[in-house]
Amino acid sequence: MAVCAQAQTPQQWRDSVSVLMEQIRLHPNDIELRLKKAEANINLEQWDYAISEYGDVLRLDEKNLAALYFRAYCHSRQQHYDLAKVDYETFIQLDPSYLEAHLGLAHTLQKMGRKGETLDQLNRCVQLFPDEADAYAARAAYETEQQLYDVALFDWDEAIRLKPKNVEYAVSKVDVFLRQGRILDARLALDDLVRQGTPRAALKEWYDRCR
Distance between CA 177 and CA 51 in Å, rounded? Predict the structure, then answer.
């Protein structure tokens, strides 16, 4: 459901908005036209216009998942976290099978400073999507931030198990080792990455931190 940011210049996106506005004027109830215009607004970082457009879509179709999801995203970019929370929750009530909506809600709760609710939501992500590496990675990142290092290592291991070629996950685990002062474990994990094909030069920053 991610916005497909095509290789267009800002001027091309602005031209698209102008064309779509005229088409919407002629066909005000055309949901697809409004979604396309909102996408162009997002690519121009015109958050208020995109929010307004998604609101119009939802007045035409109150269960439109794309409008709910991307309006929540726009609200988050505007730091309207209470409004983003409502849209993510509404989306999840309509379709609980979309991991990105659950992660969006968790991120929103984190921004609102609701630590307990954030962890509950991340736990829910793992329970609902036990085969999704991103669910474990999101929880691990939050646990790392909260200095819950032992459980973070478990979750990074699960994420790596599900996506063994993801270097970002592996260096995130290295970061936890370094936070714990486990220099040898960090270096060994980096050596494993090199053996698996990651250029040592790409890991220089991490090796330097192991000195």
Answer: 42
C-alpha dihedral over 173, 177, 179, 183, to 10 degrees?
Answer: -140
Alpha helix segments (H runs only) across the chain = 10-26, 31-43, 47-60, 65-77, 81-94, 99-111, 115-128, 133-145, 149-162, 167-179, 183-195, 204-209
Q: Which amino acid is at 26?
A: L
Gap between the Cα atoms of 161 and 131, Å rounded = 10
Determine the residue type at 61: D
pLDDT in tens, 96-155: 999 999 999 999 999 999 999 999 999 999 999 999 999 999 999 999 999 999 999 999
pLDDT tier at 12 (50, 70, 90 boundaries)? confident
Q: Decide if 136 contacts 151 (C-beta within 8 A).
A: no
